[in-house]
Amino acid sequence: MTEVNRMTKGFSILMIAAMAVCMSAGSVPAAPGPVVVDRVVAVVNDEVITMSDLQRESLKRPAGTDQRLTLEEMIDRKLQMVAAKRNGMEVTDRELTDAIADIMKRNNMDNKQFEEALAREGLTLEQYRSEFREQMTMSRLFNKFIRTGLSVDEKEIREHYDKNLGQFTLPEEIRVRLLVVTVSDKASSDQITEARDKAAALMARIGKGEDFIRLIRENSGSPTAAQDGDLGFMQRDHAIPEIEDAAKDLKPGQYAGPVKAADGFYIIRVEDIRTPVKPFEKVKDDIQKMLYEQKMENTYRAFLQSLRSEAHIENKL
Question: Which of 12, 164, 230, 309 is most buried, by CB atoms within 10 Å?
């Protein structure tokens, strides 16, 4: 499938390319809406937003989006464009042309192919230039007044980690020690009974206080006997079903058995239970990103509020 063909599905690659340059999302096709008598729905300083403006913008949003929310965002955008103009951040015609030329180059398009792709999205070149200029301008404004000087230091990251350890916990783990009285897969019923009786006798000796590790060394047929039956820490659901089921209600130091398993009869002791926490270094970058985005959102909201406080706004919707 060519790049041009892909443009016909959802957001065009042109819009995606635009988003790589700007903060705002790309445009979507403008579809014909119902014919209404136009009226002013908002006044922002000396500019107006009409119902037809609002309807065109609403067509870019997911179905069911509240028009009042869309209108408030349009007001915010007008305020930001005024602020950008006031601060000399407007995008020149040459800068806009160069940016569009770069998009065409990266997508191997000439002027005709580019305009054809826009037409499939319901856009003229002039409409696209207007929307792209706005996106580029607002990106400049955002970078200067929101991103500049915004940072998260390691102290903030560490404080968040220490105060929110519950967010970084891993599934509970158990450490089990295992004694196995083995049974061959070809064992007769008598041999199986003999193994069960042996495991039961060992369990009784444990109950009388005999040393479990010594009994493992003398009787266990498991390869883990070389480690005194220590299986190490494991998540409960990573243990074989027989061990997981037998250990589910045990506390450290408690035993279960004999437990029938595929290779024989088990006696298990839960050595320890823990709820591990992801190490700080493993989550440090994620925390930093999250805190940075929070700061950026808060700074942006404060910036918009300051613009609104200085402006004359009438919402007539």
Answer: 12
Same structural domain, 118 and 178: no
User: Which residues are bridge partners to 169 per DSSP?
Assistant: 277
Q: How remote is the C-alpha of 71 from its chain's centroid?
A: 29
Instruction: Please state the pTM of the whole predicted model.
Output: 0.66
Cα–Cα dist 138/144, whole Å:
10
Number of domains in the chain: 2
Which DSSP string do the residues of 256-310 spell out, in sequence order?
EEEEEETTEEEEEEEEEEE--B--HHHHHHHHHHHHHHHHHHHHHHHHHHHHHHT
Domain holding 124, by residue range, is 3-150+290-315
Q: What's the CA gap between 24 and 92, in Å, rounded?
A: 19
CATH number at residue 12: 1.10.4030.10
Nearest Cα to Cα of residue 254 among 270, 242, 266: 270
